[in-house]
Amino acid sequence: MVIKMSEVLTFATMLMPLVVALVEVIKKVTLLETRYMPAVALVTGVVVGIAASPFTEFALPERTWAGALAGLGAMGLFDLGKKMRRMKRS
């Protein structure tokens, strides 16, 4: 089965809200410093991508890549949210 990169990116986009939510839960429950959140987001994305096997026909490498991309996207959303909060305060 040939998988197109656009399909992997679509799957990563679908995983991203879940990764963002899980990272927020991890941030609230643990006492980790915020500087570790990008790594947490990346690892969480990979784990979610791997765990998504019942929901997709992608092989393990494609799910792992999609999860990593979702984690990287979650980091971007996290940073964007921080910047928006700072702009509101100004």
Account of the protein in words:
This protein is an all-alpha fold and 90 residues long. Helices cover 78% and strands 0% of the residues. The protein contains 3 helices and no strands. The protein has helices spanning 5-29, 37-51, 60-89. Helix 1 (5-29) crosses helix 2, helix 1 packs across helix 3 (60-89) and helix 2 runs antiparallel to helix 3 (60-89).
Q: Which key terms come to mind for this protein?
A:
90 residues; single chain; mainly alpha; 3 helices
Largest beta sheet, briefly? none
Overall tally of domains: 1
Rg measurement, Å: 14 Å
Oligomer: single chain
Q: N-to-C terminal Cα separation, in Å?
A: 52 Å
Share in helix = over 70%
Number of helices: 3
> What would the average pLDDT be, to the nearest integer?
86
DSSP strand content = under 5%
Structural class, from secondary structure content? mainly alpha
Unreliable stretches (pLDDT < 50, length at least 5) are none
Shape: elongated
**Number of strand elements:** 0
Reading the helices and strands in chain order gives HHH
